[in-house]
Specification:
5-stranded antiparallel beta sheet, about 40% strand
């Protein structure tokens, strides 16, 4: 399932605008990124949480207001963009949408010079009135052997009465979040070389003078 044309144009513009910004580092397999009230519509995000196993992470979007699957049908989307190759753009994205009675996820290959390629379904569900979760097994992504982390950022997109031109909420507002695929290497300690102690010279013992004989 691809995004509607006008929604995709807006989302692509937001992605390109975020290319050269500073990253947020997340050590391990979980993190939480807070976001302010800064977008109209139901999908104004309060935070995005990443949890689960390091190589099978799941993203949970938490919005300020609750919503129903019926209200988001063909109007609201949550997207996780993932960069594994280290360039300024995403290489994959997880797209979550409502069918009216359920939420579904799909993994897409974000290709630069060709149409995006659908790689298959993802597990997605609605764990609460203001939440939606998607799980992305990293084994389905191509990650160069030389890379120990990937970058991600999230977006929600909403159309409706308050969002006639598509309301987009980007999380984080600037930059990306780097997640380690393996534990980061610990710094190698630099050995401290103790200085060789200076030996004190051995004192010279003067002989005790012999007493003069009494004459």
């Amino acid at each position: 399932m691809r995004l509607p044309a006008r929604t995709r144009v807006a989302a692509t513009a937001a992605v390109l605008a975020a290319g050269a910004v500073f990253p947020i580092w997340a050590i391990g397999g979980s993190t939480s990124v807070d976001d302010a009230r800064d977008t109209k519509g139901l999908l104004d995000v309060k935070k995005v949480k990443v949890e689960g196993r390091v190589k099978i992470p799941r993203w949970t979007f938490v919005t300020f207001k609750p919503w129903t699957k019926q209200r988001l049908y063909d109007r609201g989307y949550a997207v996780v963009f993932i960069d594994t190759f280290g360039d300024p753009r995403s290489d994959y994205y997880a797209l979550v949408r409502s069918t009216g009675t359920n939420v579904t996820g799909v993994l897409m290959r974000d290709r630069k010079n060709k149409s995006d390629f659908e790689m298959g379904p993802l597990k997605a569900w609605k764990p609460g009135g203001a939440k939606v979760t998607v799980r992305v097994p990293l084994r389905r992504l191509k990650v160069p052997a030389s890379r120990s982390f990937y970058r991600w950022w999230g977006e929600t997109l909403m159309t409706g009465e308050r969002c006639p031109r598509v309301c987009i909420d980007r999380i984080p507002d600037e930059g990306t979040v780097r997640m380690f695929i393996v534990d980061p290497p610990e710094p190698t300690p630099t050995p401290t070389i103790s200085p060789t102690p200076t030996l004190s010279p051995t004192p010279t013992v003067e002989p005790t003078p012999s007493a003069s004989p009494t004459g």
